Amino acid sequence: MLMGPLWTAVSKALFAEFLATGLYVFFGVGSALRWPSALPSVLQIAITFNLATAMAVQVTWKASGAHVNPAVTLAFLVGSQISLPRAVAYVAAQPAGATVGAALLYGVTPGDIRETLGVNVVRSSISTGQAVAVELVLTLQLVLCVLASTDSRQASGSPATMIGISVALGHLIGIYFTGCSMNPARSFGPAVIIGKFTVHWIFWVGPLTGAVLASLIYNFILFPDTKTLAQRLAILKGAAEVDEVMGMEPQKEESQPSSVDTEMGDVPQMA
């Protein structure tokens, strides 16, 4: 039966997103805690987020595509590389994982060190409009890097290193403006645990807008694909419809993969 292996693959992918996002928040936000004996530097935080990203991507790339970020998931949805049901499930799993990661960090950190637990805040001299613009640009470059690093037409092998470098690049400048989110789940987890949602909307609007722009630029200008409108609509609906659309293409002499193999094979490519 198709549903058995398919359900197993989807469940594994959701757990992978939950786990990866939780680990990302635990290590990344943990690097920003202000220990009196060793206050964190911008470089330290950037390198830690770099390493945390590379770790999360490497561990879960084959299981879920290693989005670890609602903005990345939205970008793949806009580019017709993931179905709407799977995207919704990912966007639910990621903040949940981030919240658990932040809760674990809160639980193991001494009370005098926790402070705001790395909640993203906007510098007093920065307006909300400027903050949104900064988060938009930071996420734009990140998502462009993710798309290029995971595109089988442009690259092969694990994208962990390049995506980690892109995250570090964003932190090296973004920390001075907004604490650098680029990831709504990263901002959501600590905010839930601390109960601080002041200007929290910025860390959803900026990254999500940047992700949409990046997807449009990459998929429709830089490296447009050949998907038809019917195929895009089928992908949006889910894997079963994708199989039907692919079946409409001219038959080739070589044997075609089964619907189970197609769905399972789609996972590493962010399907």
Which key terms come to mind for this protein?
about 270 residues, mainly alpha, 12 helices, about 0% strand
Mean pLDDT: 87
How many distinct helices?
A: 12
Strand tally is 0
- Outline, from the CA principal axes? globular
The biggest sheet, with number of strands, parallel, antiparallel or mixed sense and barrel status, is: none
> What separation lies between the terminal Cα atoms?
20 Å
Share of β-strand residues: under 5%
Provide a descriptive summary of the structure in words.
This protein has helices at 3-30, 42-64, 70-78, 84-108, 111-114, 128-150, 160-178, 184-194, 202-222, 229-237, 239-247, 259-266. By secondary structure, it is mainly α. The radius of gyration is 19 Å and the shape is globular. Helix 4 (84-108) packs across helix 8 (184-194), helix 6 (128-150) packs antiparallel against helix 7 (160-178) and helix 6 crosses helix 9. The longest helix is centred in the N-terminal third of the chain and has 28 residues, at 3-30. It is 70% helix and 0% strand. Residues 240-247 and 249-271 have low confidence and may be disordered.
